[in-house]
Amino acid sequence: MAALCVASSVSASPTSVPPQDQFFDKIAQYCGQAFEGKVVEDNFTGIETFSQNRLVMHVRNCTEDRLEIPFHVGDNHSRTWILKKTGAGISLKHDHRMPDGSHDDATMYGGHTQDAGWANAQSFPADQFSKEDFIRRQTPQSVGNTWHMYIYPEQFFAYRLTRPGREMRVDFDLTNPVDLPPVPWGYED
10 Å Cβ neighbour count for 68? Predict the structure, then answer.
C-alpha cells in the first residue's frame, strides 16, 4: 500500500491561547503612544530608585508577534521591554543598552508565561537563560524574579517585579498620552 503524504501549511505567526492574544492586543492598541508612570510600590533601597525620576513607557514598535516598549527613567533611555509571541506563550525580555547603543552586560534577561494568564494580566517567571545570567553577574537573589504586566484599557498599564523580599510596581496612566520620549539607546527611528 502506497503511503499518502499530505503537505500542511504552517502559520507564519506563532499562536498563543486567547487570553494571551487578548493581552497582547490590548497593549498593541496603544502603539505609537507614550504614557507617564509613577511608582506605587517599591521596597528597594538601592542606588537608583525609579521614584526619583520621570517614568515614561512608549509602545514604540508593534508587529503581529512582537512589541517593543521602551521604559525611560529620567534621562536614562537604556531599557526596552520586548514582548514576543513564541508559539508556547509570550516571552518578556529586557533589552538594556549603553548610551552608545551597545548592549549592556545586563541585557536580555526576562521570563516566559507558564500558563494562560488572563486578558488583563500576564506573569513571566525568570527563564533559564536569566537565572544563569543572574548567577554569572553575582545577583543570585534575582533567580526568583517574576515580572508581571497588567493592562486595563483606558485606565492603566502596570509593570511589576516580585521575588522573595522584593516588590516594585509602576503604574502608567493610559488616559493621558504624553509627548514621545527620545529614541531609546541602540534603536533607530
Answer: 20
In order of start, what are the domains of the chain with their CATH numbers? 18-178 (2.40.128)
**C-beta separation of 109 from 93 below 8 A:** yes
Cβ–Cβ < 8 Å for 122, 20: yes
Number of neighbours of residue 156 by Cβ within 10 angstroms: 16
**Residue 154 burial (C-beta neighbours within 10 Å; 0-12, 13-18, 19+):** exposed
26-60: per-residue pLDDT in tens? 999 999 999 999 999 988 766 566 888 999 999 99
CA atoms of 87 and 188, how far apart (whole Å): 28
